[in-house]
Amino acid sequence: MAFGDYPAEYNPKVHGPYDPARFYGKADVPFGQVKLGEIGAWLGRRNKTPNALAGAVSRAWWRWQHKYVFPKRAGIAPFFQLTVASMTFFYLINYTKLKHHRNYKYH
């Protein structure tokens, strides 16, 4: 699969119009229905290649956009979500510099 191509599992005759938020691979048990003893086998069945991880992030992005950004009456929730996510991200990448500015009690 090259950049910009459809996934190999996608068949327009079977699936209809392409939806970037949908996984076209073989269906598996959802994570919420996996029993504790089966977690290792479930994780072993996952595709852990960089392309698969990029596809999962892309599908999550498209699902988020369809739910919060694209509706006709979309509110300000996506802006607050992006603001909180960016604040958290920048706090985490600057944590090593910020931890030196803690206030300590010297008694």
From TrEMBL:
<protein>
    <submittedName>
        <fullName>ATP synthase subunit f, mitochondrial</fullName>
    </submittedName>
</protein>
<keyword id="KW-0375">Hydrogen ion transport</keyword>
<dbReference type="GO" id="GO:0042776">
    <property type="term" value="P:proton motive force-driven mitochondrial ATP synthesis"/>
</dbReference>
<keyword id="KW-0812">Transmembrane</keyword>
<keyword id="KW-1133">Transmembrane helix</keyword>
<keyword id="KW-0813">Transport</keyword>
<comment type="similarity">
    <text>Belongs to the ATPase F chain family.</text>
</comment>
<keyword id="KW-0472">Membrane</keyword>
<keyword id="KW-0406">Ion transport</keyword>
<dbReference type="InterPro" id="IPR019344">
    <property type="entry name" value="F1F0-ATPsyn_F_prd"/>
</dbReference>
<keyword id="KW-0066">ATP synthesis</keyword>
<keyword id="KW-0496">Mitochondrion</keyword>
<dbReference type="GO" id="GO:0046933">
    <property type="term" value="F:proton-transporting ATP synthase activity, rotational mechanism"/>
</dbReference>
<feature type="transmembrane region" description="Helical">
    <location>
        <begin position="74"/>
        <end position="93"/>
    </location>
</feature>
<keyword id="KW-0138">CF(0)</keyword>
<dbReference type="GO" id="GO:0045259">
    <property type="term" value="C:proton-transporting ATP synthase complex"/>
</dbReference>
<dbReference type="GO" id="GO:0031966">
    <property type="term" value="C:mitochondrial membrane"/>
</dbReference>
<dbReference type="Pfam" id="PF10206">
    <property type="entry name" value="WRW"/>
</dbReference>
